[in-house]
Every structure is written in C-alpha cells, then in structure tokens.
Amino acid sequence: MNAQKKTDIPCPICGSGDFQVLYADTLGDRLPDFGYDFSPSHRLSFRTVRCEHCGHGYSSPLPADIYANYIDVEDAEYIRNREQRLMTAEKVLSVIRRLKPSGKLLDVGCATGDFLDAARKNYAAQGLELSTWAANIAAATGVRIHRQRLSEMQADEQYDIVTLWGVIEHFETPRKEIAEINRLLKTGGLLCLWTGDLDSWIARLLGKRWWYVQGQHIQMFTMGSLEKLMQESGFVRKKMERYPYVMSLRSIAKSLGRYKALGALARLLLDNRLWGDVRITLKLPGEMFGIFEKVAPAVKV
Known about the structure:
alpha/beta, Rossmann fold, 2 domains, seven-stranded mixed beta sheet, four-stranded antiparallel beta sheet, 27% helix
C-alpha cells in the first residue's frame, strides 16, 4: 500500500515550527507496519524531528488520517502474548487501585481486551478500539466496546478512569485527543498512561535503534513535553514511575531480535524449552507510567 501525500506539521505540543531532524525517513512511499511482529519492515519510520522549544519528538511530514489504517489490522503475534499482558495488567492495576479502588473505567485502544479482563474485577470497564478484528475479540468477552473515535464518544455518563497503554504515541493530534479524554472524565478522575521517554539515557544511547522508533509511533514524548501537555489540558501529575512490563524470556529474545548480534545471543540463551516460558517483570529506563488527575476542563483547541 502506498502512503498518501505527506504534509509538514508544527509541534503537536507547543505549535512551534522550529525543529531539528533526529532521524531520516526510511519509509519512502510506503505506510508503516501497524502490528508488532518486529520484522525488519517494522523498524521503517517517518522522519523524526525534535521541537527546539519544548523538546517533544514527533514524525513530520505525515500523511493525513493515519488512524484509518488500524481498522483492518490483524496481529497474530499480539495474541500469543496474552498471558504476559494479563500479568502486566494486574501489576498496573495494583497501583491504580491505591488511588481509585472502584468506578467506571474506559481503556482507549483496548485491542483484544486483555487489560479489560483484569480491570473488570474491580471496575465497570469498557473499551474503545478501532480495529475491527481486535474489537470483535474483546466484545466476545461481554465487555462493552466502543468502535469510534474519542471525538465521537458521548459524555452523558463520565468515567472515573481512562487508560492509554501504548496508545498516546499513535495520536496524530495528541492535544485534541487529551482534551476529549478530559471531556469524558469526571473532575478528580484519573488518566493513566504508558509511553516512551525520548530523554531517557537508553533512548539517547540507542538513537534510531531505540525500540520506540517505529513507523506507527508518530509521537515521542519526554517527561517535560508530557507534563506540559497534561498541565495545559487540565491535569496534574499524581504519579510517575517506570512501567512494570511482564515478559517471558522467549518474548525478550524475540524483542531483542531487532539488534542483530545481541538478538542471536538472546535466542541462544533465552529461547529454549527449559526456561523460555519463565516470566520476569521489567521496569526499563525510558518506559514512563504516568497517572494524572483531572482538575479543570481542557482549554478548547
């Protein structure tokens, strides 16, 4: 599939047009992969620039309406990792429950509904998902799934918690999307998210080989640019720590496959019958887990 015409965009966080180029475009006329098979084509990306005013990283130029490409995505590799996502969800929820033990929850970009499976033990949980394939799987569990964009959601019954697990980096207009989430949240409600930190030492060390540099990741936040977005969207930070991701040794080996020499060693040591299924909790540098409280309506954008 060929990409649409690309257009230069200003910084999605502060609106500045001043930037420095971090990484060149490697996609050309193609669209990025919208799954997680970590194949060589998965690493191809749009040009990545960094705002000289607020430090935010983002893709520019971009084709319009990238979100529409998620509607027909099917991802068999994603299904294989269900158990470790459920275990991750339990760790994340243990943190959220300390701040808000019950209430109505919306998981935006809920995929096949694994987080919702864990969350509905304590919350009245719903999901939002644009992928028809993923939404059908999630809905089959009996959870209500909204198959629409945030701007199309009705706020007649607001939420106590909205979650964004690996989602905010996909937003074409993060300021508008966070304003929509603000609209859907009660005052005092929580916005919980996970994304990468472009300012982390691991991101600086790896450069374009950092695992967040993917074609489908068009926003690259720093702690500063995320904080700026949230403050200006009516939120205050309640908690910021590293994301507790549970992975099997086999999955770690597969993820490290993007680094040629290290990947070969990882497959040899980790991907075997003896301990390949052993799971450990990773709290990697560069993996931000933030919880923000709504204190005011968002400014119209």
